[in-house]
């Protein structure tokens, strides 16, 4: 929970998001990547298999150049149906083309 709160408080000036994520992973926290179909604006907690375990899902706020307005359009457009492709994201959400250049599906790993 502390990791998600720190990430949502960015920019703080002394810890970069990558440092917070690395430290959380080093301490056994499951940190999940940004997912166009699952992430909200803020980083959130979601079930992580066990009843007492939670994972941190990175939020759309972590996407450089993505405004809160564009993120709201994405979240609203996927409310009834998840995005099937990048083209689907671009057409339904109406975000600028320069921002719609990623995978719409959750990935098993993230770049380091």
Describe the protein.
The chain is α+β, with helices and mostly antiparallel strands and 112 residues long. Helices cover 31% and strands 13% of the residues. The protein has four helices and three strands, in the order ααβββαα. The chain has helices at residues 2-8, 17-26, 68-77, 86-93, and strands at 31-32, 44-48, 50-57. Strands 1-3-2 form a three-stranded mixed β-sheet. The two termini are 22 Å apart.
Short description:
This protein is of the alpha+beta class and 112 residues long. Helices cover 31% and strands 13% of the residues.
Kindly estimate the percentage of residues that lie in beta strands according to DSSP. 5-15%
Strand order of the largest sheet: 1-3-2
Question: Which structural class best describes the helix and strand composition?
Answer: alpha+beta
Low-confidence stretches: 102-112
Shape descriptor: globular
> How widely separated are the two ends?
22 Å
Query: How many beta-strand elements?
Result: 3
Count of helix runs: 4
Main sheet makeup? 3 strands, mixed
Q: What percent of the residues sit in helical stretches (DSSP H or I)?
A: 25-40%
Rg result: 14 Å
What letter string, H or E per element, gives the SSE order?
Answer: HHEEEHH
Mean pLDDT: 85
């Amino acid at each position: 929970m502390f990791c998600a709160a720190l990430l949502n408080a960015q920019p703080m000036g002394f810890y970069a998001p990558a440092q917070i994520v690395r430290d959380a992973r080093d301490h056994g926290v499951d940190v999940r990547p940004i997912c166009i179909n699952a992430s909200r604006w803020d980083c959130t907690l979601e079930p992580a298999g066990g009843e007492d375990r939670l994972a941190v899902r990175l939020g759309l706020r972590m996407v450089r150049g993505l405004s809160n307005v564009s993120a709201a359009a994405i979240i609203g457009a996927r409310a009834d149906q998840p995005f099937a492709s990048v083209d689907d994201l671009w057409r339904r959400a109406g975000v600028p083309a320069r921002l719609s250049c990623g995978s719409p599906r959750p990935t098993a790993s993230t770049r380091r």
